[in-house]
């Protein structure tokens, strides 16, 4: 009887859609910052109903550009806080919730993060300044052309 | 600015590493952005895409030519290349072209950087006790020939403490003529410590990163440095 060769096959993981990953990134930060649904919607710049729909009925194939930009700033603030206060620590998240953008600033940074994209950018600049740099240097190697 | 040591040879200044000691710093980023391994990459890409400074940096880096990178190890590239991505104007560049600036000693680097930070504090009217985190980068230049302005007269306008009107055209011209860089006495440091500018990354080697950080604090009238 002829033997049939059996080739082990590995099931290929289905790639997660980009928009799902991007929204997941924003929600991961929002979890650490202990935000409610209304604050999460403000953070990424969409109405609360839209965010609720995305989370429950499915994310669109691509997130709007302004949402992606806001998530980018949020991640940069989160990275800078982690770089300054320690990776993944609650202290870093607490700093965003309770501390200002400058040492003498009594107004915490978080409400600014929920306002205009300009305000979000200002918070990003302040946190990256405090951390001594931006994630840009981290990103450069993968963006540069190889000889 | 980075702290480097300068070892002179007749006609060919050679700049070599000066070890500053201290603790090595490393930055480790945990993936705190989701269970998918791609999450961290997506997060970093989003952060970079929203960063106008990075966009400008990449524009600046595109002005570099093939071969300018030399033998720089991939891991060292961000630290060496970041200054070349800053295309703002400076003493030896009128803009559109990034440069790497270093100083002979840490004290000279602090005088140079402190001058510009203090100017910014005054212009932006920053509150007192504004801390600045500054990472220290240790670096070495190779034996590439540098324009030597150490013996220039004090009246040489290229070394003016008040204007870059003569230094910028000179730097632009020498960079076009494939000069590796310039070495000159600091005009911000009373001890006249030496400063170095590199026009091309290939002139830099053996860069080690962030031996320790230096902090400057603005007290309303001047900057004070501490570790």
Summary of the model, kept short:
Chain A is mainly alpha-helical. Chain A has 8 helices and no strands.
Give a description of the structure:
The complex is a heterodimer of chains A (147) and B (227). Chain A is an all-alpha fold. Chain A is built from eight helices and no strands. Chain A starts with 17 loop residues before the first helix and ends with a helix. Chain B is an alpha+beta fold and 227 residues long. Chain B is 26% helix and 22% strand. Chain B contains five helices and twelve strands. In chain B, a hairpin with a 4-residue loop joins strand 11 and strand 12. In chain B, helix 2 packs across helix 3. The longest helix of chain B has 19 residues. The N terminus of chain B is likely disordered. At the A-B interface, helix 1, helix 4, helix 7 and helix 8 of A face helix 1, helix 2, helix 3 and strand 5 of B.
Features:
heterodimer, A: 147 residues, mainly alpha, 61% helix, disordered C terminus, B: 227 residues, alpha+beta, five-stranded mixed beta sheet
The succession of helices and strands of chain A, N to C, reads HHHHHHHH
Please give the number of β-strands of chain A. Answer: 0
Number of helices of chain B: 5
> What is the distance, rounded to the nearest whole angstrom, between the alpha carbons of the first and last residues of chain B?
16 Å
Instruction: Estimate the helix proportion of chain A, in percent.
Output: 55-70%
The order of strands across the largest sheet of chain B is 1-4-9-8-7
Please outline the helices and strands.
The complex is a heterodimer of chains A (147) and B (227).
Chain A (H helix, E strand, L loop, with lengths): L17 H15 L4 H8 L3 H10 L7 H21 L4 H9 L11 H4 L3 H15 L4 H8 L4
Helix pairs in contact in A: 1-4, 2-3, 4-5, 4-7
Chain B lengths: L1 E2 L1 E3 L6 E3 L21 H12 L2 H10 L15 H9 L14 E4 L2 H19 L5 E6 L2 E4 L5 E2 L18 H10 L4 E5 L8 E5 L5 E5 L4 E6 L4 E4 L1
Parallel strand pairs in B: 1-4, 7-8
Antiparallel strand pairs in B: 2-3, 4-9, 5-11, 6-10, 8-9, 11-12
Helix pairs in contact in B: 2-3
